[in-house]
C-alpha cells in the first residue's frame, strides 16, 4: 500500500491557495520545534466570513498537503466554523496520513487558529484565550 493517499499527493503536487495576502486581516505563523517546519496562514475576513485565504509552508509534503486542504476547508466559512476545524478533520479530508506524519496536520490547525487570533488582536475583539493553543509551548503539542 502506498504511504500517501492520492489526495495527499494531489495537494502536495498541486497545492491550492499558495501565496500571501498583502492586506490580510489576520496572519498566523506556527512552527514545529522538532522538525523546524514553518507554516504561515493569511486570512481576509468580511462580516465574520473568510473570503480569502492563502498559505506559505516551508516544510514537508504532508505539511504542504495539510495546509492546502485546510485552506479549502475554511474558505467561505465563518470564523467559528474555521476555529472548529481540527487536525483530525484535516487528516480525514486527506484520506489519512502515516502515523509519524500526523503532527504535520497539527500545524494546519494551529496556523488557522493563530491567524484568527491575530485578527481578533488587530480588531480588538474579545476572545476566550483558552481556545487557542499555546504554540510557543512545545510541551503543549501532543505530537512532539
Ligand atoms: Fe515537519 Fe511534517 S515533518 S511538519
Quickly list its features.
globular; 3 strands; alpha+beta; 144 residues; binds FE2/S2 (inorganic) cluster
Detailed description of the structure:
Helix content is 39%, strand content 17%. The chain has 144 residues and is an alpha+beta fold. The chain has one domain: Sufe protein. Chain: A (Alpha-Beta Complex), CATH 3.90.1010. A three-stranded antiparallel beta sheet has the order 1-2-3. Strand 1 and strand 2 form a beta hairpin. Helix 1 (6-13) crosses helix 2 (61-74), helix 2 packs across helix 5 and helix 4 crosses helix 5. FE2/S2 (inorganic) cluster is lined by residues 32, 35, 37, 59-60, 62-63, 101, 104, 107.
What separation lies between the terminal Cα atoms? 26 Å
Whole-angstrom Rg: 14 Å
Ions, cofactors and other ligands present here are: FE2/S2 (inorganic) cluster
List the total number of helices. Answer: 5
Pattern of helices and strands: HEEEHHHH
Highest CATH level, the class = Alpha Beta
Q: State mean pLDDT (0 to 100 scale).
A: 93
Fraction of residues in helix: 25-40%
**Tally of individual domains:** 1
Question: Brief description of this entry?
Answer:
With 144 residues, the protein is an alpha+beta fold.
Amino acid at each position: 500500500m502506498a504511504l500517501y493517499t492520492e489526495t495527499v499527493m494531489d495537494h502536495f503536487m498541486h497545492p491550492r491557495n499558495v501565496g500571501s495576502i498583502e492586506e490580510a486581516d489576520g496572519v498566523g505563523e506556527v512552527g514545529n520545534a522538532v522538525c523546524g517546519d514553518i507554516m504561515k496562514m493569511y486570512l481576509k475576513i468580511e462580516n465574520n466570513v473568510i473570503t480569502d485565504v492563502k498559505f506559505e509552508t516551508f516544510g514537508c509534503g504532508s505539511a504542504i498537503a495539510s495546509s492546502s486542504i485546510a485552506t479549502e476547508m475554511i474558505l467561505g466559512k465563518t470564523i467559528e466554523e474555521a476555529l472548529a476545524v481540527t487536525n483530525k478533520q484535516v487528516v480525514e479530508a486527506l484520506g489519512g496520513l502515516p502515523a509519524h506524519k500526523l503532527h504535520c496536520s497539527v500545524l494546519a490547525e494551529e496556523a488557522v487558529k493563530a491567524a484568527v487570533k491575530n485578527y481578533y488582536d488587530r480588531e480588538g475583539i474579545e476572545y476566550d484565550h483558552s481556545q487557542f493553543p499555546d504554540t510557543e509551548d512545545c510541551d503543549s503539542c501532543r505530537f512532539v
